[in-house]
Amino acid sequence: MIRVVFADDHEMVRIGVSSYLSNQKDIEVVGEASDGAEAVDLVLELRPDVILMDLVMKEMDGIEATKRIVDQWPEAKIIIVTSFLDDEKVYPALESGATSYMLKTSKASEIADAVRATHNGEMVLEPEVTGKMMTKMRRGNARPPHEELTNREIEVLMLMTEGKTNQEIADQLVIALKTVKTHVSNILEKLEVQDRTQAVIYAFKNSLVK
């Protein structure tokens, strides 16, 4: 039997999910907690195989409870079960030591499957959470947009920060006006900005102006 402790401050949620899980042949809910502090004490006392942890609870939230449990029992397998998908909840929850992340909108059968998978050492994430993590990883590994600029485009951008017009830039660099317009267009596209003003602001924010 997979022994489970479920922490959630909504009694009806606990009753509904616990009832479904307890009807499974391989799962047993051995304890319930209505707040984070109670969850910490109960988990450390019972040492269940899997913990279902709500995020927003009175006394102590799920993130703090997860941290305290993992600090004292690193082997704990914790599934966050919440209504929140915003970044300030997802990443702190996973960084605190949670193994999996599910939404309360998930079917009870999906939560049961997550319990089994987590017990087997797998990480279970809502598809939307997985998407967020992949996006964050891509952004973290991506080069800054201005590193895509050519040397000539950087020259043009620096002259733009001085407030020079396309014609003045063309005259100073001794290139055709049409060429300057092409450079400006490329700069806006590479920096992912809408206009010259935003490009100039980007240059100052990223310390490109010497």
Automatic annotation (TrEMBL):
Gene3D superfamilies: 3.40.50.2300. Pfam families: GerE, Response_reg. Residues 3-119 form the Response regulatory domain. Residues 142-207 form the HTH luxR-type domain. Keywords: DNA-binding, Phosphoprotein, Transcription, Transcription regulation. The modification 4-aspartylphosphate is found at D54. InterPro entries: CheY-like_superfamily (IPR011006), NreC/VraR/RcsB-like_REC (IPR058245), Sig_transdc_resp-reg_C-effctor (IPR016032), Sig_transdc_resp-reg_receiver (IPR001789), Tscrpt_reg_LuxR_C (IPR000792), WalR-like (IPR039420). This is Response regulator transcription factor.
